[in-house]
Amino acid sequence: MKKYIYIAIVILFSGCDEFLEEDTRGILSPDGFYATEAQANAGVFGLYDILKDNNLYGRNLFTYTAWGTDDMTCSRRNGQANPLLDASISTSNLGQTAGTWNTLNSLVVNANSVFSGVSNAGIEPEIKDRIIAEAIFLRSIGYYHLTHMFGSVVYHTEDLPIEELAELGETSAEEIVADLVNDLAATEDNLPASYPSSEAIRATRWAAKTLRMKLLLWQNNWAEAEAVGKDIINNSGLTLEPNFANIWDNNVDGFTSETIWQMIFSINLDTSPLTDFYVPRLRDEPASQADRQTLENALDANGEGFTGFGLLIPSAPFIASLADDDTRTPMNFTQEYEGIGLKFPYTPKFQNFDQELSPRGNHGDNSIVFRLADVYLMLAEALNEQNKGDEALTYVNVIRARAYEPDRPDLAGLDQAAIKQVIMDERRWELAGEGHRRYDLIRWGTYIETVRNYDYGSLFDPSGIQDHQVLFPLSPNQVELTPGLVQTPGY
């Protein structure tokens, strides 16, 4: 099945005019292919393969939501980081956003094919409803990122021939998000509460509800977001890990008690390069070359290595914001290894130095997409926006109780503006680098101001950022070849 899915991708995004003259609806044979549950599941697993592509959760959806925010900077000039950290992204300097745009649209097209094929398949109704709900969730993930990155985009929920897709006009982000919210609300409870470990990458109802909650915050639909957040916290069976470090301690092998959804990779089989972005480059370290042999000896003794790229590093203002009594700080920032000082700061929660289990270019480290702490803080935000400040603080205080050692007093008696600032800060420290910060800043209306006044170090200058750069441009080639596409305003 997988090869037929990728045929559809190539045809859609090849840019060859002759392909636009063909009706490709029969490539996946939706009316006949999904004769069994196994075949329908194979179609869905093809969608997860797209999600794990380097343009999406294999790399870019983390790097492009970290660089160009108030979390991360880059250790050196780099073609992927420069456009974001210099605020220089343009139609002639796209970075890797064109690849992400293509792959997100591939996800949507193929999710529609699975949706159509399963809808017409002769399989049990309960199974059909579940897989349809899964296809809708995965299509919604595609549009969640498309609307946040590009604004208005071509929107379609049917398995259409290529020439019809090419002629579709754009739909506003607001309309798309409203549809996504309705689709998820109508189908999310058809998803199971959990899957066996062999299918652990698959989205549960709690993943779908978390996505809907994020979209509801985008809409300022605070009351419904509150209801969804309480449903997840009270009914999912998920619990916060007692120790923040535990979330990242065994990320290669499985889930933690607060993991809602994650991408699963496998060494020697199905790998991601993301870990290399956080692991240091040995030639950059240590801070003092007099310690070089000591560092190499320590790494060898532990079976570890500095074999990464060392590109994604915490920025100086972010480091300065971290508190010594915050147990998240050692996972968000370190500048030493076994007591040896390092030249650059790093983010330990995303690192894996193990040369047997996670060697350079062959990482099986899983990537968390949604976890329960995020839901607690989103719920606090939804409550605070409804002037339920005291209740909002009860959820913030749960996160703070885990974070601070010794315990800090519970927050109380703050006004709405002060609570909002607390939530914004706690999201920064709790979720640093986890793919949420750019979207949070955009949603709060603070993205441009934050980046314009931010210090990424002497290598980068974002002060020239323009208001339209809250969104990314489309490739001029894509716009030229697709009549329905309109370039992102301002570019």
TrEMBL record:
Keywords: Cell outer membrane, Membrane, Signal
Record carries keyword Cell membrane: no
Cellular localization per UniProt: Cell outer membrane
Domain RagB/SusD: 346-491
Keyword match Cell membrane: no
A Pfam entry, by short name: SusD-like_3
Coiled-coil boundaries: none
InterPro entries cross-referenced by the UniProt entry: SusD-like_N (IPR033985), SusD_RagB_dom (IPR012944), TPR-like_helical_dom_sf (IPR011990)
Domain SusD-like N-terminal: from-to ranges: 77-210
Main localisation: membrane
Record-stated family: Belongs to the SusD family.
Name by which UniProt lists this protein: RagB/SusD family nutrient uptake outer membrane protein
